[in-house]
Design a protein that fits this description.
203 residues, 3 helices, 33% strand
């Protein structure tokens, strides 16, 4: 299956990929009268969110969503569904044709978000392993009702996990060794993000 695109979280003026979710309250199109359709083989769920942490509050800044041909036509004619008081724009040159921008909509999420960026040079990447394993920057963000209550830089912890993999000479092509790595990843964070399962729900 084609690797699926992930949501983005802007945190401390840096764009991270949303690599793990544990909790409830992230944006759901169905709660706003929107039924997403697949946008491409890389976005089967049909929507992508850009979240932002501003003044220690989580908000939805941008939404890209796939809709039916009839709904897309309505957007082109300025009759799209309002979201946070905003009408969507139509971009004919991309798969992500319907786009809501500058939403600044509060998101009452409670739980944890695991956000990552970049790959560490020299660390082998294997399909099916969680991106936290090989990422340069890893942050765990904990929220209550959309308010950021704890932020953890997990880069050093992940460096120690990679060192343990080398010390134990784990062969990550072997299922038992991959399970050991998944256990260490889970222990590295406050919450359990289901790291053994690979990519998370993005939105």
């Amino acid at each position: 299956m084609t690797a699926q695109l992930r949501d983005t979280v802007e945190y401390r003026k840096h764009a991270f990929e949303l690599a793990g979710v544990r909790g409830s309250g992230l944006f759901e199109p169905s709660a706003h009268g929107l039924t997403p359709r697949p946008m491409s083989t890389a976005c089967q769920r049909g929507f992508l969110c850009l979240y932002r942490v501003a003044d220690k509050r989580l908000q939805l800044e941008e939404l890209r969503i796939g809709l039916t041909a009839e709904e897309e036509q309505a957007v082109q004619e300025g009759r799209g569904t309002l979201l946070s008081g905003q009408l969507p724009s139509y971009l004919s040159e991309t798969h992500e044709r319907v786009v809501y921008t500058r939403l600044r909509a509060p998101v009452a999420f409670t739980g944890g978000l695991l956000v990552v960026d970049g790959f560490t040079r020299g660390v082998p990447y294997h399909d099916g392993l969680h991106p936290a394993w090989s990422s340069k920057r890893i942050q765990e963000l904990l929220f209550e009702g959309g308010k950021l209550v704890e932020e953890r830089d997990c880069g050093e912890v992940m460096t120690r996990v990679r060192e343990r993999v080398r010390e134990k000479s784990l062969q990550l092509d072997h299922a038992p060794h991959r399970a050991q790595l998944a256990e260490w990843l889970t222990d590295a964070f406050r919450l359990d993000y289901g790291l053994a399962a690979g990519a998370p729900r993005g939105g």
